[in-house]
Amino acid sequence: MTLPLVNQAQAHVKETQDVIVRLLANIGSRKEVEQYLRHYASVDAPKFAVVKASGSIIENPASLDALASSLSFLQRVGLIPIVVHGGNVQLDRALARAGIEAPVVKGLRKMTPAALEVARRVLHETNLRLVEALEALGTRVRPFTSGVLDVRRIESPDLGLVGEITNVRESAIDQTARAGILPIVAPLGETSKGQILIVHADAVARSLALAVKPHKVVYLNDAGGLPDESGAVRSAVNLAEDYDDLAADEKIGPESKRKLVEIAALLAELPPTSSVSITTPDHLAKELFTHRGEGTLVRRGEKVARHDGWGSIDTTRLRSLLEECFGRDLDRAYFDEKAPYRVYLADSYRATAILTMEDGVPYLDKFAVTTEAQGEGIGGSIWQRMRKENPKLFWRSRATNPINTWYAQNADGLYKTPKWWVFWCGMSGWSEIQRSVEGALAMPATFHDRPSAFPPPLADDGGAKEGAPT
User: Which of 4, 50, 238, 246 has the fewest CB neighbours in a 10 Å radius?
Assistant: First the structure.
């Protein structure tokens, strides 16, 4: 018996998603992948994401292949991003070959009529190159090199024929995305009199995001994220908690700070559920579909308060948070018998770190982040602030905890037993380390298994329930 065409199509989509889930399980847990697929499936096609790809990515064959593969993958799982591309690398080369000078002024290239003629050709070619790479993978695409952006000329003799966006005509893009076709938008706009002007690609991505209010805005570049103080890519930024420190950090370069200011301004005008990711094309799926991600996730976030006792805390809500994350019952007398040294708590009660003082050294007694809050940067903000304010620290984690590798990377040392791993930071004397290790191993459990239930495999009295802090 032959299935009706509609049922066949539905079966094909289900089969495709099952294959994708299995493939993504290599970069994250099946639970994570399915959670994000369900979440994104509830988002209207045009509102899924605006993705901005730098010209250098399209210029590099390997990066272009990764970009085309990532975008094709998203389309196959039913997620249709609006793609905006740049073309600086290609334009620099074409202008140099033509012997045309176009100096950069305040981040924008001066456009004389001769330079604009070259720029239009280059951006059309760049758009076509991405379109052809996607079509070669069987992906349906539609190029937009005109008809989307209404612009006016920036009144500056130093810039020439450079435009600023006055209006986005998103209806054609909306219809394209709803039809399951990828829109590929070039940074070119038209004035009311039909004059073509070049526009900064980041400004195009911003204007499209403000017009369609997407769930995600993704910047794809070679760096793969915003660096932290060591130069490594920062996994997450909670603007409410981290912005001032990052803006004042002298170790962060001017380009990263400029990007941070732009992102903060953009997120201030988008719904609170929106977020910005910065990553590379080959890590796009991991950034979108795993808690830990691969790049930098920026959200408006929320404040984290430090409490020096239980008095200012709703312990009923805090108990619910801990028991939700650990999947076990907390001692009824925990808040009566446990004397906290410092408690770091998100305003929403979705993440916390509880420290006690043990023999003169802070001990991380509990660290918990709810599933909903994982990947939002709140846990990472708590961790960074806790470490900054407590240079000396120790904690324990079950030997079977998958994030022990992450803990080890963020600790100065560790001691292993068959049941527990004990970590420490800021201690150099062996006697102090020995006392801390022995103290951690002797700590009584404060969580207890629920009747007829097994504890979650990652729950322990000193570590995160799922994944490293992000």
Answer: 4
